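HUMAN: Mind sharing a backbone?

ASSISTANT:
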Amino acid sequence: MENIRIVADKTEEILQEKHIGMAYFTVSASEMREFNVEGGEFSLFRTLYDNELSITAYKDQKKGAVSINRLEETAIRDAVDTCLKSAESGVADSNHAIAPKQENEVFRQGVYEPDIDRLFERAREWMEDVKEQFPKIMVHDIVVSHTKRHSVYRNTNGTEFESFSGEYAVSFGFAGHEGDQTTSLCGSYFTTDSLEKPFMSMGSVKKDLQDAQDQLKTVSLTGKLEGTVILTPECLSEFLYGMIGNYVSDNAVLEKTSIWLNKLNEKVADERITILSAPFDERILCGQRYTQEGFKAQNYELIKDGVLKSFMLSLYVANKTGLERAKNTSYNLIIEGGETPYEEMVKSVKNGIIVGGFSGGQPSINGDFSGVAKNSFLIEDGKIKGAVNEVMISSNLAELLNHLIAISKETVENGSGVLPYMAFSNVVIAGK
């Protein structure tokens, strides 16, 4: 890996030569070791190296940005010149800013050096566990990797953050298979800094395998009804990202399209809902430690007890609107488990579906959405009847948060978030 501190020193020197008064940059080097399994056989092992220098600079209150992956001096000088030319073509705006001087800090997260032998062992163990526990599952592929990163961030106010991080990432592709019948391709994914536990116990891997196998039993849903949907943690994250984009993001606030624009410190969701953005939570792996503007990241509440506590705003949009900037810019979302066991949640549903994924276009400005429920199961009178295909669901993101039925006790931790199962009423469910 490159000596990135030397690269950082040279970049800072060139910025000073150009008399750039406001800028920040990050130089990083990463090393990824990856192996694949296809058809039950280890098919690839490789090591990939990557370097990157990203620079953002301001000239006459105009912003320019550039990223390169060559780190020699001539490339750095060309990048700075390109960045300044980019700024010259921009629009002047006095709201551009970077963080004042912060205390310099070094961050160390995860597992920096991998145990490749143990990683292979865990992959083999998982394949054996699948054969024994899920005989109707066909494994298509496994991608297992370890990535370590070293990065240095600096800005013209004198702040430096240095980071060393490492993590294992594991993804599986599989399908249910019995005779001539095969389900659609399913998957599961998690990141971790420890190989102490079997892959089968990580994230939602075991539940995802069981769901894929159960999809071999299908039932049909005809007509339309207004019922209950139970969102799995993976599917719930999709809806939360949609909510963020529509109601609390930079664009939604800056363009004044958010229906929550004037609802700060007001109730916008069921009082049982609290959503944290928490990169420093111990269950989050290699979470954000600083923002690109140069602030040290902090955990914060997006919604607390149903009340909107913060927008997810950059420093620029905060300056532009007079609102408070977000204390981090990560998507490490946490909703703690509730009081209802998952099995009891299912038993309480008279008519509805469990939704494992969602395929639809972007929600409308006000949050209306409609699309296909993927990897879904029909519930009637508290019993799961079987997998359903070609089922559409539609509702509104804001209304959904106010039609909460229950939050499961169980949560899924996949290294990037912590989310439960959540049941919502008043959703339109349409079959063939």
